[in-house]
Amino acid sequence: MRIKIYKYDYGYEVAPDPIVGSPYVGRGKTMEYAMGDFLRCYQKDIGLEIIVDESAWSSELRRRKRELAKR
Fold first, then answer.
1. Residue 4: predicted pLDDT
2. Phi and psi (nearest 5°) for 62?
3. Contacts of 37 (CB under 8 A, 6+ apart)
4. Which end of the chain is more exposed for a tag (fewer CB within 10 A), N or C?
């Protein structure tokens, strides 16, 4: 999979290259945050397994609630 990183006024986006249709893109204030967001979404497509340790689980739940509130 090829990806492309875009810079916008609000931060960065990471998207599959070429973009076909309206795929999910990773977004973040920094390039690293955008890459992390992208990898979290496409982990199965690229054969990556992300395991959230119990010590980080409460932070992950807060992140998920924030994302759901945006919809």
1. 92
2. -65, -40
3. 14, 26, 27, 28
4. C
Cβ count near 57 (within 10 Å): 10
Separation between Cα atoms, residue 50 and residue 34, nearest integer Å: 16
pTM reported for the whole predicted model: 0.69
Cβ–Cβ < 8 Å for 15, 3: yes
Length of the chain: 71
Look-up: residue for tokens 């893109």? 25
Tell me the C-alpha distance between 46 and 25, whole Å.
15
Tokens in use for 60?
Answer: 């992950």
